[in-house]
Amino acid sequence: MNDTGSGLASSPRIIALANQKGGVGKTTTAINLAAALATSGLKVLLVDMDPQGNASTGLGVGYDARRSGTYAMLEDGERAAAVVQPSAVPGLSLIAADTELAGAELELVMSDRREYRLRDALAQVGAEYDVILIDCPPSLGLLTLNALVAAQSVIVPLQCEFFALEGISQLVRTVNSVRQSLNPVLKLDGIVLTMYDRRNNLSELVADDARSFFGDRVMETLIPRNIRISEAQSHGQPVMNYDQRSSGSLAYQALATEVTDRLGLHAVRKGKASL
After folding, report:
1. Cα(131)–Cα(204) distance, rounded to whole angstroms?
2. Angle (CA) 252 185 275, round 5°
3. pLDDT tier at 269 (50, 70, 90 boundaries)?
4. From CA 179, how far away is CA 202, in angstroms rounded?
5. For 12-64, how does the pLDDT look when each residue is reduced to its tens digit (9 = 90+)?
6. Checking DSSP bridges between strand 92-95 and strand 85-86, what pairing results, if any?
7. From start to end of the chain, where are the E strands?
8. 212 membership: H or E segment, kind and range
9. Which of 214, 233, 240, 264 is the most exposed place for a label (fewest CB within 10 A)?
């Protein structure tokens, strides 16, 4: 029997950022969207489910500085609250990808409630956060499946490059399958076009193709190619902290506003403030 309960009424909005194709700006979007939402006044938790740990590094937590994180929470039964650590961005916390996470994909196969491990763990943090963002690995394995079972929303970063739309249909099928069998509330709530270059006709063609296929599920905000975004990550910072006036920073601030409006996150914050 599938466990499809939705948790506490005051539970946070959980958003999985997923795309099985690597190099599409998924982790970059996770870091900078999380920072922008926190700056807007929401309490945000970023969960690094990618064994590469780039979201953790991008928030200034290198491998040498990591303590127990997602692996300890999923496999060792550590409480989520015990593995959360603060970031340099006020209002933004992190559960880092510890080094053992690479082995979790195989170990979860033999675990009880293997698809629900992340959802069960995040239920413990309850009303402490308004939004939880999950940075998924570039695959459709058990780690990503755990994220999709835990989430209510999926946001897909899609690079404005040739072949970008290939593979998205497989992700959509996976989301539909998870909704039918494991998590009936799961929705594909947005596609974010990344690495957009106005000087390149291909970017416009990919954007047009995405909008014609996915309609209004494609976010209006376009994330540009911007060197400041890459520089910020190399310094372990969101681009807002590194160069607040850069085009990359302004784009992620606009995306945070659009996500907030689209998912009704202002209402979430207001409702919690009245408790």
Report:
1. 31
2. 75
3. low
4. 33
5. 999 999 999 888 999 999 999 999 999 999 999 999 999 999 999 999 998 77
6. antiparallel
7. 13-17, 44-48, 85-86, 92-95, 131-135, 153-159, 187-196, 218-224
8. helix 201-214
9. 264
pLDDT for position 93: 96
User: Count of CB atoms within 10 A of residue 243's CB?
Assistant: 18
Picking from 50, 46, 20, the residue whose alpha carbon sits closest to that of residue 137 is 50
- Those residues whose C-beta lies under 8 Å from the C-beta of residue 98, and which sit 6 or more positions away, are 66, 67, 68, 69, 70, 71, 72
Q: Which two tokens stand for residue 216?
A: 């209004």
Q: Which one-letter amino acid corresponds to residue 158?
A: L
What the block records as the tokens of 82 is 């015990």
Average pLDDT, rounded, for the chain:
89
Query: How would DSSP label each residue in 24-38?
Result: SSHHHHHHHHHHHHH
Position 184: which residue type?
P
| Rg (the chain; Cα; Å) | 17
CA gap 26, 137 in Å, rounded: 9
In this structure, what token pair is assigned to residue 166?
A: 């290939």
Give the residue carrying structure tokens 């290939």: 166
Structure tokens given for 71: 């692996």
Q: pLDDT tens digits, residue range 225-235?
A: 999 999 999 99
Q: Residue 89 in contact with residue 39, Cβ under 8 Å? A: yes
Q: Let me know how long the chain is.
A: 275
